[in-house]
Amino acid sequence: MTSDGTPAGVSWAGTHVYGAQALREPGTVEALQELVAGASRVRALGTRHSFNDLADTPGVLVNVAKLAAPVDIAADGRSAWVPGGIPYGLVAQQLHAAGLALRNLGSLPHISVAGATAVGTHGSGDRNLNLSGSVRGMELVTADGSLVHVDRDTADFAGMVVHLGALGIVTRLELDVVPTFEVRQDVFVGLPWSELLANLDAVMAGAYSVSVFLHWHTDTVREIWVKSRIEDAVGETYFGAARALPSHAGPIEQVADNTTATDGSYGPWHERLPHFRFDAVPSHGDEIQSEYFVAREHAAAALSALRPLGARIDEILLTTELRTIAADELWMSPAYRRESMAIHFTWKNLPDEVSALLPDIEAALAPFDARPHWGKWFRMPAADVRAQYDRVDDFAALADQWDPEAKFRNDYLSRTLGL
Ligand SMILES: Cc1cc2nc3c(=O)[nH]c(=O)nc-3n(C[C@H](O)[C@H](O)[C@H](O)COP(=O)(O)OP(=O)(O)OC[C@H]3O[C@@H](n4cnc5c(N)ncnc54)[C@H](O)[C@@H]3O)c2cc1C
To answer: Is the CB of 50 inside a 6 Å radius of any atom of ligand 1?
Structure first.
């Protein structure tokens, strides 16, 4: 029983109370296998950073953080096996100490590797895949308790990586790694909205990773965070936007100083690519998040279609963030076969108001075939979500094949995908 009196507690932001009967934390793979084999309904819970009921189950939730496993680097230095239940921040420290890096990270290093890659968590950068794109192998416990190894040579692996928890409980993942690198972070302010729309592709392509933070009913964009590698040129202005003063407020009026260094100093990749420091509580906390992915060629039109809703959006918004993601081949990835722009909303913690506005946002984005972030709030019906994924029937068949008794199914999969 957790301190709030519910068997499995609440999501990180408190936006979902897990309805599971129990939370288990097996200490060995064998104990996990036994647990899954004996359960009628079971799902994995990561670090609880999804904002909805994606992870939940009416049965037993399982967290694999206690499965001890080393970060195991391949002899050729091009990949590493990492435990699924631990946060990227811990994996990053070990990789960096070995002279290695992941190509990209999300805005926070606190999320578990298995939970993040199950949903296609992303950072930014035109040439950067989402984090699931780095997965080259997985070990998972399937419905009958078997420990199964799959990798890029396995048939249908592209359907298994972004799995939404529907295929099994992942114990370890093999990730692509690259030689370690340094990144600097610079912040620019005052870019007019009109300039952003006129130069959107170039603004997003101007460095290794670019994030644009904005409100909608304003003339200028709030802040642009530009994450550059040593080979990128960093000027004193960015598309006419001025360098922010060291005392700049940040995308959200932060309750605490929790962001990574934005002073233009170079530092290790894992201390610059995330917006939030691993040793601090990320983001605002008292919040809800939503995010929609559109193809890059529709990005400016999609932003323009949302602007008429700007006053209503801004009333309940902490910040919007725009990021880009390279196209991939993973069937259920929001970036499946689309160079993508992610349009993100960090909302004030006003569930009724957010719920009321989301259908209007989704209607405005419908002409652009928007795909919702699996781990955040959205209201799109299953038929509309399914229409965005060419391989959804194949994914459903895979889930049936791997989980014939529907142990890993839940309300979320039924409501959002008709599974
Ligand atoms: C402050 C904040 C910032 C965020 N920033 C970003 C961002 O920059 N980019 C982005 O894309 N998203 C972002 N997110 C969303 C977040 O990355 C995703 O929701 C991610 O899934 C969270 O990982 P988790 O470990 O908390 O997973 P959970 O939320 O616990 O679970 C998510 C899914 O993964 C499955 N899962 C978890 N562990 C396993 C396992 N071992 N085996 C099988 N399935 C498993 C669960 O069953 C569930 O389906 C943010 C969230 C927060 C709270």
So the answer is: yes
CA 96: distance to chain centroid? 22
- Ligand 1 contact, 392 CB (< 6 A): no
Summarised one tens digit per residue, pLDDT across range 227-276 is 999 998 889 999 999 999 887 878 876 556 889 999 999 999 999 999 99
**C-alpha pair distances (Å), 365 with each of 165, 322, 352, 372:** 27, 15, 21, 10
**Which atom of ligand 1 is the closest one to the Cα of 46?**
30
**Which residue's alpha carbon is at the smallest distance from atom 30 of ligand 1?**
46
| Per-residue confidence (pLDDT) for residue 6, from 0 to 100 | 80
Among 38-47, 239-248, 275-284, name the most confident range.
Answer: 38-47
CB atoms within 10 A of CB 198: 12
CB 218 within 8 A of CB 168: no
- Whether 49 is in the pocket of ligand 1, judged by its Cβ within 6 Å, is yes
Q: What is the DSSP letter of 259?
A: B
Q: Could you tell me the distance, in angstroms and rounded to a whole number, from the CA of residue 45 to the centre of ligand 1?
A: 9
Other C-beta atoms closer than 10 Å to the C-beta of 89 total 19
**How many Å apart are CA 42 and CA 189, to the nearest integer?**
47
Closest CA to 398 of 139, 160, 91, 205: 160
Please return the burial class of 325, using the count of CB atoms within 10 Å of its CB with bins 0-12, 13-18 and 19+. buried
Pair of tokens at residue 259:
């962001």
Nearest-5° Cα angle at 173, 378 to 227: 65
pLDDT tens track for 50-80? 999 999 999 999 999 999 888 999 999 999 9
Please provide the average confidence, as pLDDT, over all residues in the chain: 96
Kindly report the length of the chain.
Answer: 419
Confidence category of residue 393, pLDDT binned at 50, 70, 90 = very high
- Cα 118 to Cα 55, 159, 210, 263: the distances in Å are 10, 11, 24, 33
Q: Is 64 in the pocket of ligand 1 (CB under 6 A)?
A: yes
Which protein residue has the closest C-alpha to ligand 1 atom 33? Answer: 115
Q: Tokens for 409, please give them.
A: 């199914």
pLDDT by residue (tens digit) across 345-390? Answer: 999 999 999 999 999 999 999 999 999 999 999 999 999 999 999 9
> Contact 284/255 with Cβ under 8 angstroms?
yes
